[in-house]
Structures are given as C-alpha cells and as structure tokens.
Amino acid sequence: MFKSETKIQVRYAETDMMGVVYHANYLVWMEIGRTELVKNLGFSYKEMEDEGYVSPVTDIQVSYKRGARYGDEVTVVTKIAYYDGLRTHYGVEMFNQNNELLCTAKVEVIVVKKENFRPISLRKVFPHWHEVYEKNKIIV
Amino acid sequence: MFKSETKIQVRYAETDMMGVVYHANYLVWMEIGRTELVKNLGFSYKEMEDEGYVSPVTDIQVSYKRGARYGDEVTVVTKIAYYDGLRTHYGVEMFNQNNELLCTAKVEVIVVKKENFRPISLRKVFPHWHEVYEKNKIIV
Amino acid sequence: MFKSETKIQVRYAETDMMGVVYHANYLVWMEIGRTELVKNLGFSYKEMEDEGYVSPVTDIQVSYKRGARYGDEVTVVTKIAYYDGLRTHYGVEMFNQNNELLCTAKVEVIVVKKENFRPISLRKVFPHWHEVYEKNKIIV
Amino acid sequence: MFKSETKIQVRYAETDMMGVVYHANYLVWMEIGRTELVKNLGFSYKEMEDEGYVSPVTDIQVSYKRGARYGDEVTVVTKIAYYDGLRTHYGVEMFNQNNELLCTAKVEVIVVKKENFRPISLRKVFPHWHEVYEKNKIIV
Prior knowledge:
homotetramer; 140 residues; alpha+beta; two-stranded antiparallel sheet; 34% strand
C-alpha cells in the first residue's frame, strides 16, 4: 500500500469570515494531494491531459472534523482506497501542524476523453498506469 | 415539506481548463441554496452571525452527474432532508436549463458559537427557527 | 454613452477572515459586469468563444475604497471608457446598497484567437460588434 | 534593496476554460509573495493580525504579459517599491519556469485596526517593522 504526503500552507484567500478555511477549499487541496500521489508513482496528470484525457470527480464524501486556520501547515495524506480498472477511490486524511485531524474524505474519479467526456478504461488506454495502481491500492 | 429553488448564472471564473465548472464550486452554490431556503422560511443567516453564531459544514456527500458549463443557468433545489434539533441535513439537486441533473448532494451543518466553535442546540437558542425546521423537514 | 448595471449578492465564500470580501473577488464581479454590458449591447461573450476567440484581461487598475460585506447587494456599473478597434478599456464603479462607493477600476481587454492567443482586430473579425462599441464608447 | 522570491505550483483549480490561469488568481499569488517578503524580513503577518491589525489592499495595478498554465512553476519576485510610514507599495514580477515574464504589478497596502478599519501609522505602532522597511525599500 502506497501513501503520499503533501504539505499545504494555508492561504489568506482560502479563509472566510468565520475565521477558518472555507470548506470548499479542502477539495482543492485533495486534488493537489492526488496529483502528488500520481507524480510519486511515476506519472503525470498534465501529460494525461496533453494526450486528450481528463479526470473528473464523480463522487466525493468529506467529514469535516476541525477548521484549518491561516498560518497552519496542513499535511494531506492520500491513498488509493479502491481501484477496479475504471474507477479510482482516493482515501484522504488531513492534519494540521499539531497532528490534529482536520478531515477525512473519499474521492471517486474516472478518466474520460476530453472531447466527449466518455469514460475510458485505464486498463486499456494506460496499461502501465493500471498495473501500478493495481499494485499500490489498499488490499481489503 | 418545503423546497427552495435558486437560480445561478455560471461565472467564467468558476470554470477550469476541462471546460466545465470546477467541482469545488458546486459547494459554493449549495451554500447559496441553503441561504435562500433559510430566507424563504423567514430567517436570515446574516443575523444569526451577527448574534455570534456560525454554521459550519460537518459532512458533505456529492454525486456528480454532469458538468455545468459557462452560459448555463443552474437551478439549485434545496430541502431539509433531516433535522433533529442539533444537526440539519440539506438535500440538494441541481439542474441546468435543459432540466438535466448536474448533481445530487447531502450537506450536514450544525450551529456553533463563533468564539469557541462549541455546538449549540437550535432548539434551545433559536426556538422559533427550531419550530419552523421541524414543520418543514421531510417526513420519512 | 452606454452604461450597464449588474446586481451582485455577496457570497459567504467571497469573504475572508478580515470580515470583508477578499480583494481578488472584485475582479470576478468586474467580469460579470462586462458580460452584462456585452449582453445589453446585443452580443454574447459565450458565442464569441464558441467561434474560437477569447478575451483576456491585459491590464487592470483597481482603487479600493471600502470593503464589501456578506449580506451586501453590490451594484457594478460598467462603461466603455476607451475603444480603438483593438483594445477596450472598461470603466467600472461599484456601490453597496447604501450607495457607498466600494471601488473604481479600469480593465483593459483584447480579443485573441483561442488556439494561439494572437490578438485580432475586432473591427475586422466582428465588424458589427466594432460598430456598436464605437457608437457607445465614452466621448472624451 | 531587498527582494523576496516565492515559488508557486499552478493549481488545476486556478485555471479557467481559456486554458490559462484565471487573471484574478495572480492577486492571490501576490499576497503569498508579500507574506514571504514579510517573513524573510523577520516578521509575521499572522502575528500582526493576532494583535488586532489587518492589512487591506488599497490599490492594485497589474499588467498581464503571458498566461500561466497548469504544470508551470511560477516565481513571484516581490520588492518594497515605496514606503512612507503609512503606505507600502510592493513591486511584483512573475516568471514561469522558462524565465518568461507573466506579469508586473504594483500593490499598495495600508495597516488598519481590525475593529474599525481605521488606518494606523506603522512608524508609531510597529516601530521595528518601520525601521526595517525604511532600510530595505528601493531608493529612488
């Protein structure tokens, strides 16, 4: 099982008048975490796009535990929680610099052709990527 | 059962290089939908804040069906899916101008004191609000 | 001389921990104002894009006078301050519901081909658009 | 004369359907650059806020030269272009990884009391900060 850790410095622009990070911004950080995981496994999301594919989020579940604040350094831990050749579920946990849990999440993504948004099989179109995801997903 | 409908014009800034609305922005629209529902029931989220309370999201589940695009007019339909005096679950559906379903979601919020983020009972602190939510929630 | 007025309801997501709207978000509202002006003059920015052209901002100057706050209704007043067939300068003023000035701005945009970002002459490529802009720009 | 350099990895969420970074996001990066400069000079913007002061932008001028793209690493160069004890002008230049100029900007900020937004004199309230800014500003 593989996990990726990404450090995020909270931006002033990401806070709201509640004094904490606006909840939608956690989704942006999750995407940065996924990109890092993909990179750490030897691939590039950018290159996939250059070849005409994009990877939209199809389902997301977030459980918010504690607000991140300006000045915090957040660690985004990302794992491949499930993978079946078509759909990938990323498991995410975020912590602040005091190791306090900020949120847990599950993000489902697929890969589609950019021109028509039709889903493709990672197994067929990116076989090497498929192999590495099979090897590094969490065994249940 | 009460439902609120809010119209959203997609902003250019909300799109990404995939050509559709970036998925985190749906959460912003959901909040606009909740604010509208609250207003339609005779209350004001702004006034609640002025009294020293804020209403953070504690859990969110979104199932994305179809990308919204620049030029679209989106309708956000919001209902009180669950309410127990402490937690409220808002049920959300979004449609584009062709009545195509963009996403379904469930958003859980609580109310906390702004100064210490301690949860409060809506039933006790805002009894009129409580009464109206009890009356307008979906009966299961 | 033509001017367009657009109403904006401040979104919670647009505020920051300072308690006012984060200053970059005014640029988003200015874009909504420009889109509205274009629409009021009988054109569609969306259609221009569908024909393969985009309209990037090349220069912006904003003088911030007063912070917008959650709950405010902002009026964005947009005029064509300058137009020469190639470049358009939009003059912008924003007011809150008490008619207090929030900011003044000047935004310069050009039109480019989407595929290579090469500037085009509005006069040549969109002659009708050119004519209407000539007629409605501020006479100095 | 002092200058600060900050590296920014372009986020997917920062792009728009034009395929480049949405122009308002450059203002967010400028703020990150200012925070870094402040930190490099031995101060903390966070601590200033904790003492009850905030630092709003009062004027901004940006000249956009070239669009940043997803995958780019952007360098934000920030200098103190002007300082008079009350107002600070930050001079900003941004480059991509090929050393191509993305934009130049000037950002004016002041410091105000958070509770009433009344401007304060940095010279009086933060004398050490004042001294360091005097020493490190660009001499014209």
